[in-house]
Structures are given as C-alpha cells and as structure tokens.
Amino acid sequence: MVKPDVTDPDTGHNIGGWQGRISAIFDEMGTLTIQWDSHTLESMPLTHIAWCEEEGMSWSEMNLSNHEVEPATARDTEDDVARTIAEIESKSSWLHLGGEQGKRIQEIVSRAQDHDEFAVFRTWHAYLEEQLVFPFAATVVEYQRGPVREARSGQGSGHHLPG
C-alpha cells in the first residue's frame, strides 16, 4: 500500500492509500513496480487514465521507491485485476489519441454491445458506413502502421510509407 501523502511522481497527485502487488524489485535503485489492484483501478479517475494514455504511460502499474510503500493484505485476486483492466481498456482504449478526437472515437466504440475487439470493430464500421460517402478523398498526414499508401503525382501506384 502506498503510504499517506505520497504523490504520483509524474502528475503530482496524491496516491496515498493506493494498493497493489509488487511485480518487480530493482534493488540497486531501491525501486519497486506496483501493479495496482482492482479496487485501486476501479477508483482511479478517468482523467488520470486518459492522461496516461495520451502520454504513452501505463495506468495499471507504477514504479515507486521502496520507502513510499508499506505491506498490506491483498483485497482481491490477480484474476480480479485482469477483469478490471479489460473493462477499463474497453472504456479508454482510444483515449491515447488525446483531445476531442480520442474522446469522440471512444464514445462511438463504447456503444458496442460486447466489449470484445470484434464487437468494437463492428460498431466502428457501422458508424463509418452511416457517416461517410464512399469513395472519399483523404490525405495521409502522418505515418500509421498498416498498408496505407501515399499517392505520388504522375505515378499509377503508391508506395508503402516508411516504418
């Protein structure tokens, strides 16, 4: 358990009382990796999760100094943690895009009946079919993984964007 008045080293928010399991020990640095338990994850503000997603940081675990934590009795099981993480991910998986764009996409995919990957893709597909008139013109402004091709003027075929 995190001792009272300990703050998140990245955000400065008080995380005293957060609880989890030690998943790694770095003796030479006196640092521990704490994987948060389901109770802590469920009480974690969505704004914190969104910030972590935008910054490319984990919200399900954190490195802390060994003097910032104290022993505690487990409040759940590792299966509870896995279920809670899956539930939170289904509600926050698009927030990494940041800003309004990520919030709008998350709002749409959260309409999925089930929160498995295929249900989310079907919901997104249905939304795009309702909103877009095909074919449509689009411009690739930054590299994304996948087979997106960038057109070059005067050439009949595109090329894969650099990875």
Descriptive account of the structure:
With 163 residues, this protein is an alpha+beta fold. It has a domain of 92 residues. It is 35% helix and 13% strand. It contains 5 helices and 5 strands, in the order E-E-H-H-E-H-H-H-E-E. The strands form 2 sheets. It has a 3-stranded antiparallel sheet with strand order 1-2-3. A two-stranded antiparallel sheet has the order 4-5. Strand 1 and strand 2 form a beta hairpin. It starts with 19 loop residues before the first strand and ends with a strand.
Helix and strand sequence? EEHHEHHHEE
Taking all Cα atoms into account, the compactness measure Rg is 21 Å
The side-by-side strand order for the widest beta sheet comes to 1-2-3
> Gap between N and C termini, in Å?
42 Å
Provide a quick synopsis of the model:
By secondary structure, the protein is α+β, with helices and mostly antiparallel strands.
